[in-house]
């Protein structure tokens, strides 16, 4: 997808849902890993793709029954301050970088209410403390003004965007993400353009989604970011905690097509 080829009207209407066929995330080419949280504990191994293991950094985490949760009717509870990670060396395919560093990250989640309004990190390789930014799916990044939107953060240099105090690069959606509501949120990047997606459709926002950023993603190297879920390393400490329920998480090594993202964003148990 290129900005010059894209029309904002392209995804305003959804295809007839009766056209869907049964499928699993692994049926879409390019899957790296898919986590479907089904059992409480401290370790969560991906059920499809690479069996990368997410390790809780907050002790045992609870998985609860929720009939509206995608992919099985269960969800991981992340209280503010709880998070997970995979050491960088243990997940080489998630180390997405360079000019060929294309990706899609999608999460099926129900946002909770944080104690104080702040940025919330869902998943990616994003370490601000040591200029290890690569990619990260966020909520409520406020660098362009609006609050409570999806933000598919991207970094070509690892540090702040040249000329700015912070990293400004990434696609910001137009829709406010409410609390206590199940949604699918996603980011994609094809080496030229980043996009943010809500419930399987482009959450178009003039000038910000799609977001043009040529040149690929930063290579964090051996001292780059781990893959984290629910928090990032920034200002020398862990923060930007996500608060809510997470039903599933998927990462692909390519920018999925609008049709693929729509199908993935609407499993049978998403309302």
Secondary-structure map:
Layout: E1 31-36, E2 43-45, E3 48-49, E4 53-56, E5 63-65, E6 74-78, E7 84-86, E8 103-111, E9 120-125, E10 135-139, E11 150-154, E12 170-172, E13 182-189, E14 193-198, E15 201-202, E16 211-212, E17 227-229, E18 232-234, E19 237-239, E20 244-252, H1 258-265
Antiparallel strand pairs: 1-3, 1-20, 2-4, 4-7, 5-6, 6-20, 7-17, 8-13, 8-20, 9-10, 9-17, 10-11, 11-12, 13-14, 14-15, 14-16, 18-19
Which keywords apply here?
single chain; 271 residues; mainly beta; Jelly Rolls; 10-stranded antiparallel sheet; 8-stranded antiparallel sheet; 20 strands; 3% helix; globular; disordered N terminus
Task: Indicate the structural class.
Answer: mainly beta
The biggest beta sheet reads: 10 strands, antiparallel
CATH architecture: Sandwich
Average pLDDT score? 92
Low-confidence parts lasting 5 or more residues at pLDDT below 50?
1-12
Quote the distance from N terminus to C terminus: 28 Å
Radius of gyration: 17 Å
- Overall, the morphology is globular
Share of β-strand residues: 25-35%
Under CATH at level 1, the class stands as: Mainly Beta
Q: How many β-strand stretches?
A: 20
CATH topology: Jelly Rolls
Count of separate structural domains: 1
Helix content: under 10%
Discrete helix count: 1
H/E series: EEEEEEEEEEEEEEEEEEEEH
């Amino acid at each position: 997808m290129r900005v010059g080829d894209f029309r904002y009207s392209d995804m305003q209407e959804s295809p007839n849902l009766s056209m869907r066929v049964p499928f699993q995330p692994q049926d879409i080419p390019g899957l790296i890993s898919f986590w479907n949280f089904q059992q409480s504990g401290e370790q969560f191994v991906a059920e499809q793709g690479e069996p990368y293991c997410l390790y809780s950094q907050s002790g045992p985490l609870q998985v609860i029954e929720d009939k509206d949760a995608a992919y099985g009717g269960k969800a991981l509870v992340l209280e503010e301050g709880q998070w997970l990670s995979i050491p960088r060396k243990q997940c080489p395919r998630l180390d997405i970088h360079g000019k060929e560093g294309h990706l899609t990250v999608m999460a099926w989640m129900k946002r909770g209410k944080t104690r104080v309004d702040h940025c919330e990190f869902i998943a990616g390789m994003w370490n601000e403390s040591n200029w290890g930014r690569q990619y990260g799916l966020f909520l409520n990044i406020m660098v362009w003004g609006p609050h409570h939107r999806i933000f598919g953060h991207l970094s070509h240099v690892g540090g702040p965007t040249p000329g700015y105090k912070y990293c400004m690069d990434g696609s910001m959606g137009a829709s406010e993400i409410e609390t206590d509501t199940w949604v699918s949120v996603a980011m994609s990047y094809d080496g030229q353009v980043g996009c943010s997606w809500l419930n399987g459709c482009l959450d178009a926002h003039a000038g910000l989604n799609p977001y043009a950023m040529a040149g690929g993603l930063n290579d964090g190297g051996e001292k780059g970011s781990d893959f984290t879920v629910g928090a990032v390393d920034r200002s020398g400490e862990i923060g930007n905690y996500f608060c809510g329920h997470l039903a599933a998480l998927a990462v692909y090594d390519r920018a999925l097509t609008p049709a693929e993202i729509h199908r993935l964003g609407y499993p049978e148990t998403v309302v």
